[in-house]
C-alpha cells in the first residue's frame, strides 16, 4: 500500500441522502418521484400492458413540490426511478423581514434565517396577517434535494 494521503474536495452534501431508487411499478399516486431533476408529488399513474417490444410502461403525471408545475414521465415498470427524500419540519415563526425573509425558531432554540416567504400568495397573506395580529404561528417547511420552502401554516393561538 502507498503512504500517500488522499484529499478529496467535496462541495456541499453528497447526493446519497437526497434520493433513493424505487421500481417504477411500485410508485403510487400521492407518492414522490424525481421528474426532469425536480422533486414531485405523483397525482396520476397509468400502466400500459406489455407490448411486443417488451416492458409494460408507467406514465406518471406529477406536480413539482416547490414550483407547482405539472411534469410528466414515462418509464418501463421494471426500471428504477429516483424518489426524493422529502422531510417536513415545523418551526415557530419569530419575524418577517422587509425583504421577505422569515426568522424561524428551531427545536434546539436556534434561529433559522435563510428562508423566504413562499410563492403561494394565499399562504403569504395568511402568514403576514396572522403575524400582524400577534398570533403564535407554526410554519411547516418541506425540504427535498437541497431545496426548502414553507408549505403550510398552523395557528396555535395568541401570544
From TrEMBL:
One of its GO terms (molecular function) is ribosome binding. Residues 1-13 have a biased composition (Basic and acidic residues). Coiled coil: none annotated. The lineage of its organism: Eukaryota, Viridiplantae, Streptophyta, Embryophyta, Tracheophyta. This is Eukaryotic translation initiation factor 5A. SMART domains: eIF-5a (SM01376). The keyword Protein biosynthesis applies. Belongs to the eIF-5A family. SUPFAM superfamilies: Nucleic acid-binding proteins, Translation proteins SH3-like domain. It comes from Picea abies (Norway spruce). One of its GO terms (biological process) is positive regulation of translational elongation. The gene is eIF5A.
Amino acid at each position: 500500500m502507498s503512504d500517500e494521503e488522499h484529499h478529496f474536495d467535496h462541495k456541499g452534501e453528497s447526493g446519497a441522502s437526497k434520493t433513493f431508487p424505487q421500481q417504477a411499478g411500485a410508485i403510487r399516486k400521492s407518492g414522490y418521484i424525481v421528474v426532469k431533476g425536480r422533486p414531485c408529488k405523483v397525482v396520476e399513474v397509468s400502466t400500459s400492458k406489455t407490448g411486443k417490444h417488451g416492458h409494460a410502461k408507467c406514465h406518471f403525471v406529477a406536480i413539482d413540490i416547490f414550483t407547482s408545475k405539472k411534469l410528466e414521465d414515462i418509464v418501463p415498470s421494471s426500471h428504477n426511478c429516483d424518489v426524493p427524500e422529502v422531510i417536513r419540519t415545523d418551526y415557530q415563526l419569530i419575524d418577517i423581514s422587509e425583504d421577505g425573509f422569515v426568522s424561524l425558531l428551531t427545536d434546539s432554540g436556534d434561529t433559522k434565517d435563510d428562508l423566504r416567504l413562499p410563492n403561494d400568495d394565499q399562504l403569504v397573506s395568511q402568514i403576514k396577517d396572522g403575524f400582524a395580529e400577534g398570533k403564535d404561528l407554526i410554519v411547516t417547511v418541506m425540504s427535498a434535494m437541497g431545496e426548502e420552502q414553507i408549505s403550510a401554516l398552523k395557528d396555535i393561538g395568541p401570544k
